[in-house]
């Protein structure tokens, strides 16, 4: 007991310089993130318009929010975009990583090519894919120029499938990051596991499915959190490709917040929408943090 009590002060002052250096970052996070989040939540219960004011109206802003057709379309689009992005980016990223993990020739070149889109801003990506998907001089125009006059591919101009046109650009940009994370996880697998699987005659797909993927659980969870947090905040792609059109068919929550606060000058409505987005992010972050840190504490 005495030894344990004597060690506590030593542990407190261990890496003291690093702890002191982290104080400004911690204070900034508390003031900017936590303070700003609390401020947003509080003012979401007011009728603030051009300027914030503490005139509380209860849940009126949230009732108006969920009765808005524009917000409902934004939530539906976010759900479609989010589910498809999570599934496709994880699957495609893992497959590409598994292929690169076979020690193929020019691996560095392929890795650079696949990761390059992630280095571009979402605005640039959106503009590039707006051109590619343009019916006059994009894919549709090119195919029709080859003689298939009846070919139609204009997702950005069709309100029923416009969100899938945005999805194409999002997958193209984000899959490279997922691939790199997965590749790092695969490179961390002990080579003896692959040798044992080959000796036992286990097919490669079973080795991946029942041995490798379960061992990469932390990588999958971390990748899932990174991708999911980016999905909730998607804004640039929509603005660059469609500006929310045709009509309001490609609205997303982040754009709804911007329009409410800066175009409609309705801060209360924008704060309410921001709070709902914060709740969406927290439903991803909190379970992950509890699962990861709780597991480490139990193992420790």
TrEMBL record:
InterPro entries linked: ABC_transporter_permease (IPR051393), MetI-like (IPR000515), MetI-like_sf (IPR035906)
Segments passing through the bilayer: 21-45, 78-100, 112-132, 161-186, 207-232, 271-291
Keywords assigned by UniProt, alphabetized: Cell membrane, Membrane, Transmembrane, Transmembrane helix, Transport
First-listed, main subcellular location of the protein, grouped into a coarse class: membrane
Keyword Cell membrane: yes
Pfam families in UniProt: BPD_transp_1
Domain ABC transmembrane type-1: start-end pairs: 75-290
Lipid bilayer topology: Multi-pass membrane protein
Family under the similarity heading: Belongs to the binding-protein-dependent transport system permease family.
Designated name of the protein: Carbohydrate ABC transporter membrane protein 1, CUT1 family
Taxonomic lineage: Bacteria, Pseudomonadati, Pseudomonadota, Alphaproteobacteria, Hyphomicrobiales
């Amino acid at each position: 007991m005495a030894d344990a009590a004597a060690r506590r002060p030593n542990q407190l002052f261990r890496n003291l310089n690093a702890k002191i250096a982290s104080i400004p970052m911690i204070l900034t996070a508390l003031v900017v993130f936590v303070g700003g989040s609390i401020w947003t939540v509080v003012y979401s219960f007011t009728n603030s318009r051009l300027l914030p004011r503490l005139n509380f109206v209860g849940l009126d802003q949230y009732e108006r929010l969920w009765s808005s057709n524009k917000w409902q379309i934004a939530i539906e689009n976010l759900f479609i975009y989010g589910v498809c992005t999570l599934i496709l980016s994880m699957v495609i990223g893992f497959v590409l990583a598994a292929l690169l993990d076979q020690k193929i020739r020019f691996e560095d070149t392929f890795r650079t090519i696949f990761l390059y889109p992630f280095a571009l801003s979402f605005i640039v990506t959106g503009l590039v894919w707006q051109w590619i998907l343009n019916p006059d001089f994009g894919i549709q125009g090119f195919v029709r120029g080859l003689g298939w006059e009846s070919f139609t591919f204009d997702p950005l101009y069709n309100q029923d499938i416009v969100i899938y046109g945005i999805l194409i650009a999002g997958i193209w940009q984000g899959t490279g990051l997922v691939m790199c994370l997965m590749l790092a996880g695969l490179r961390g697998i002990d080579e003896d596991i692959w040798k044992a699987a080959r000796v036992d005659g286990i097919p490669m797909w079973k080795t991946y499915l029942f041995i490798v993927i379960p061992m990469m659980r932390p990588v999958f969870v971390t990748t899932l959190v990174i991708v999911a947090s980016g999905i909730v905040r998607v804004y640039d792609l929509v603005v660059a490709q469609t500006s929310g059109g045709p009509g309001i068919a490609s609205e997303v929550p982040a754009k709804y917040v911007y329009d409410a606060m800066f175009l409609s000058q309705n801060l209360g409505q924008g704060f309410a929408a921001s709070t709902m987005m914060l709740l969406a992010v927290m439903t991803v972050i909190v379970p992950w943090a509890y699962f990861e840190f709780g597991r480490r504490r139990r193992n420790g």
